[in-house]
Each structure stands twice: as structure tokens, then as C-alpha cells.
Amino acid sequence: MKLAITWMYDEVGIYVGRILKGAKPTDLPVLQPTKFELVINLKTATALGITIPQSLLLRADEVIQ
């Protein structure tokens, strides 16, 4: 699974390459993410007194203990 931050770095490189080749920044499309990841940090939730429902934990892409 490719992390969202890695995806953003890749896209920045593509944008910079286009600008260096002469494209106007105002002509470049604005990209929006197509995939969102749900990461739950149980240790932090417990420290804050938040109870995470089991159904939400099952849907999470990653659960940090």
C-alpha cells in the first residue's frame, strides 16, 4: 500500500517537471486524492478517553496499538 504522503511527493515531482519544461503553473490541473486511508491510534484514543467502536476498528486500513 502506497502511503498518501509518498503519492504527494510523486505528484510534486511531476508538477515541477512540467513547470521546468515551460508549462504555466496556472494551466496545470489541481489534483485531488482518490483514495483515503483510515488509521486509528488506539493508544492515543485511550489516553484521551475515547472508545472506538469495534465496527470502526474493522473498517480501518491500519490500527496502531
Which terms would index this structure?
single chain; 65 residues; mainly alpha; two-stranded parallel ribbon; 2 strands; elongated
Description:
- The model has no long low-confidence stretch (mean pLDDT 88).
- The protein has 65 residues and is mainly α.
- Helices cover 45% and strands 9% of the residues.
- It has helices at 4-20, 42-47, 54-59; strands spanning 39-41, 62-64.
- It has 3 helices and 2 strands; from the N terminus they run H-E-H-H-E.
Strand content: 5-15%
The biggest sheet amounts to: 2 strands, parallel
Q: Calculate the terminal CA-CA distance, rounded to whole Å.
A: 19 Å
Extended strand count: 2
Compact summary:
By secondary structure, the chain is mainly alpha-helical.
Describe how the helices and strands are arranged.
Elements: H1 4-20, E1 39-41, H2 42-47, H3 54-59, E2 62-64
Parallel strand pairs: 1-2
